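Why this split exists: single-chain examples teach little about how molecules sit against one another. For that reason, every record in the complexes split bundles all components of an assembly together and asks for one structure covering all of them. Below is a record exactly as it appears in the raw files.
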Amino acid sequence: MHFPARFRVGSGVAFSAMKFAILGSGTGSNAEAILKAYRAGTLGDAEPVAIFCDIPGAKILEHGKAYGVPAVQLDPGPFKTKFSPEREAAWAQAIKDSGAEWIVLAGFMRVLKAPLLEAFPNRIINLHPSLLPSFQGLDGIGQAWRYGVAVSGCTVHFVNAELDRGAIIDQAVVRREKTDTQETFAQKIHAQEHKILPDVIRRISLGEVVL
Ligand code: GAR
């Protein structure tokens, strides 16, 4: 049986779990992988405390319900791929209010700027569906597929002010086989994402990742 780190006793030393919020925009299969790992007790001392989503009705919100983690949709403002400054400040406050000290971007399709970066300095990580620094930006899988690469994969990295350019924490490689279609290639990349993202969160929570 796994107990969240904050309930652990015995050493006389107060444990402080790495509380984090998940931000996502869509299906939320990576959020689900994180929540599953937490339930299975394989997320180290990390604890998901909230899910925030920018798209009304996105499936990621259902995963929150299924796993008992508060999940809310918040207004990002009028732009498609960034926040308005006021809304980004409101998101930063809402995320702080949730108790989160870290942010995990799991399929979040907006660029972060000062309000969030300054509220969570060096405490935001992102998942990207390519081997960075190749194929940054939107549709990393499609970009790699169309380029005709023999291998691609996924990356977890720290987030800084430069899009998809923060320090890399981990990557997984996926080979493109002759029999692959873009769909099967994408499925293989997603399967790797579901492994490396929870594992990076675990490693950060245990102090094994230093920027
Ligand atoms: C994932 O493949 C993730 O790498 C990608 O969105 C997908 C979300 O899937 N993120 C980006 O492209 C960020 N630039 P999910 O909603 O099922 O977790």
